[in-house]
Amino acid sequence: MPESFAPGLRRAGWLAGLPALALIWVSATLYAAPQIADRLEAEGATVAAGTATATGEPWLRLEARGRDLLAAGEAPDVGERETVLSRLAGLDGPHRIVSEVGIVETAAPFQWAAIRSGPNRIALEGSRPVEIGRRALEARISGALNPGTTLDDTARAARGAPPDFPSAAAFLAARLSGLAKGGRAALSDTVLSLSGEALDMPAYEALRASLSDPPAGFSIGRIEIVPPVVPDYRFVVEKTARGIGLDGFAPTASDREAALRAATEAAAGGTVDDHLLAARGLDPAIDPKGLIAFAFRLAELIQSGRVAFADGAISVTGDAIDGQAIPDAEALMRDARPAGIKAGTVSLTARPLSPYRVVIRRTADSVTLTGHLPDTATRERVLDALRPRLFREPVVDRTRLAEGAPPDLGAALAAAAPLVTSLASGEIAVSDRALTLTGESLYRETASRAPERLAEALPPGWTGQAAVSARQAPERRDPETCRADFAAAVAGADLRFPAGSPVLAPSFYPTLDALAAVAKACPALRIAVSGTADPAKPKAPAAAAGAEARPDAVEPARIASSAKPDLAAKPDSAATPTPQDKAKDKTKDSGKDSGKTTKGPAGKEAAKPGKPAAKKPAETADEPPPDLPRLRAQAVIEYLLQAGARPEQVSVGPDGPAGPVLVALLP
Question: Measured at the alpha carbon of residue 397, what is the angle toward residues 393 and 400, in degrees to the nearest 5?
Fold first, then answer.
């Protein structure tokens, strides 16, 4: 050894041998550690085997980590856990027992989840049924996954699992095959949920379809599946003579539904050919619903062609609906584009309209004109024919001007206008020189005469077709059925007002609704309603004694069908008409078969001749108003009228005795 190295070695001393010793130690550890771990697991296997449950699988799971032994699982109770840990501690060899042993508990709610953690890796967490062995459940789940998928199962055994849990777990795990990393399928009791990003568009559609058929006993909860991102996002509306075609993508289900609604409206009875797929990739600065609405605004201006959005720009090509549509499309493209959308090309050709169409549609709310007219004079002629025949409904004009109209178009529409305005609902549709009238009439005679009237109205050279139906007549019942139904409606009724009040009690409603239904089905039915006063108070016997007994009193809500009841008004000097009586002329008793009153010289109501006048009792501060019976009768009549009875069917009868309101059926 050179003399120059000797002093250095002497100074280093024994430290020079440390690297060699470290190498020897590492080599020994690497060689001996696996042998130690294998021996520990072999010794612990006998302890684990002794924890087998009714499922045939031991609940104890062991893993050797060098000289440490990791124990996991769920013991049935605390005592068995302590026993197993003591047996493990007595094994020859382990340096330390690391316990992760839990106790089987009841999970409420019972929750379990499968999460895609990698391309071929699924993590299981939450709770699994204690009645099912871990390996048996994993085998069931693996059968629903793609071959080669690895399970990382950290779920803990628990009680409280729903019936047929393995079927639900396998169903959820199978859905993960269509989701990207991070996709999650979860169970909470019997509710299944799914979230994540679909791998591609076919997977997205397959996932949505499969969720419509969950396992028996389970329901679908929250679904948050987002479609995949596509680099070439596009949206296309194609218009043909048959209808509307949709192609491209929609970011969400609601966007797709918006496109389908717009296509159905634009097709106007034609077909809608839907090829839209769910996908993301639209610039976040662009509102998808705004894009869809703008595309259909452009589509309204073409007879045939396409509106296409691609590469951030929208364009329109094809045959314009008329010459005016070309500048209209250019103006839309220039001034009305939604934010974020670039202007594409406008390549439209104006062709003669074939066929030339115009429609007048009558609804309960309005009359609407759509299609084309040759000039403003024809437009005004048609509007002048419609407006005088409409009282409340507005006329909405959405027609456009275009050449190519058939001869006498204005004359044909003006002649047919009275026919459509006489309908409850319907329309006139013109296609070249053919006019079709369809709809529903309130009257059978009008419906039956529609073809004849249309043929008389059309100019020479025009053809017409009418298909007008009569609205179904309301239900009608024979008199005997009406009386029987009336008796059933009031049977057992107790129309008793609260003391001192003319306000209907909620218990009145079923009886009065039944009476109104009978009145609607029986137009000839006549009903008299007699209000009643409150019972006399014991402290004022004099007032009660002055009241005239009613000779023809009937039981409450009793039918007086065998003889017409006495409907003459009681001769009370306080029977001056109330404001309610004046406001409801249709229900006053002044024009009925009986109960007429006349005005006396002093402006008071005088009793009908032949009836003695009753002396007015003295009023006290705590007594109800003297016209309380009349107010109660009016309240009942008002309810019947609002429920559908006609004014001529109900009238005010004479005031009744204290008790429930009297309802009488007149002959």
Answer: 165
pLDDT tens figures, 150-165: 999 888 888 899 999 9
What are the tokens at 70? 């990791």
**DSSP label at 93?**
S
H runs (alpha helix) in 154-215: 165-175, 201-210
Q: Residue 153 and residue 139: Cα distance in Å, rounded?
A: 12
Architecture of domain 357-470 in CATH? Answer: 3-Layer(aba) Sandwich (3.40)
Q: Are strands 68-75 and 463-470 parallel, antiparallel or unpaired?
A: unpaired
Q: Which residues contact 46 (CB under 8 A, 6 or more apart)?
A: none
Phi, psi of 593 (to 5 degrees): -65, -30
Query: Which helix (H) or strand (E) covers residue 236, if one does?
Result: strand 234-239
Report CA Rg, the chain: 45
Question: Concatenated DSSP letters for 133-151?
Answer: -HHHHHHHHHTTSPTT-EE
What CA–CA distance (Å, rounded) separates 410 from 375? 10
Please state which CATH number belongs to domain 26-103.
3.30.1340
**CATH value of 234-350 in 3.40.1520.20, 1.10.3730.10, 3.10.105.10, 3.30.450.40:** 3.40.1520.20
Residue 560: its pLDDT value, please? 38
Count how many Cα atoms sit within 13 Å of the Cα of residue 350 in the half-sphere of its side chain: 12
Q: Where in the chain do CATH 3.40.1520.20 domains reside?
A: 106-226, 234-350, 357-470
Q: Is 572 left (phi over 0), alpha (psi -120 to 50) or beta?
A: beta
- Architecture of the domain defined by 479-536+551-665: 2-Layer Sandwich (3.30)
Angle 321-326-330 (CA atoms, 0-180°, nearest 5)?
135
Task: Please state the length of the chain.
Answer: 667
Residues 6+ apart with CB under 8 A from 646: 519, 523
Long-range contacts formed by 241-246: CB under 8 A, 24+ apart: 241/304, 242/270, 242/271, 243/267, 243/270, 243/271, 243/272, 243/273, 244/270, 244/271, 244/272, 244/273, 244/299, 245/272, 245/273, 245/275, 246/272, 246/273, 246/274, 246/275, 246/276
What global pTM score does this model have?
A: 0.49
Q: How far apart are CA 392 and CA 398, in angstroms?
A: 19
Specify whether the CB–CB gap between 59 and 73 falls below 8 A.
yes
Quick one: tokens of 302? 């073409």
Tell the residue number behind the tokens 């009418």, with chain if given.
Answer: 466
The Cβ-side half-sphere exposure at 459, using a 13 Å CA radius, reads 11
Band (93; pLDDT cuts 50, 70, 90): low
CB neighbours of 511 closer than 8 A, spacing ≥ 6? 489, 490, 493, 495, 557
Distance, in Å, from the CA atom of 528 to the CA atom of 60, rounded to the nearest integer, reads 86
Task: List pLDDT tens digits, range 519-562.
Answer: 888 888 899 999 888 887 665 444 434 434 343 433 444 433 33
Number of Cβ within a 10 Å radius of residue 567: 19
Do 618 and 543 contact (CB within 8 A), yes or no? yes
Q: What is the mean pLDDT of residues 468-479?
A: 75
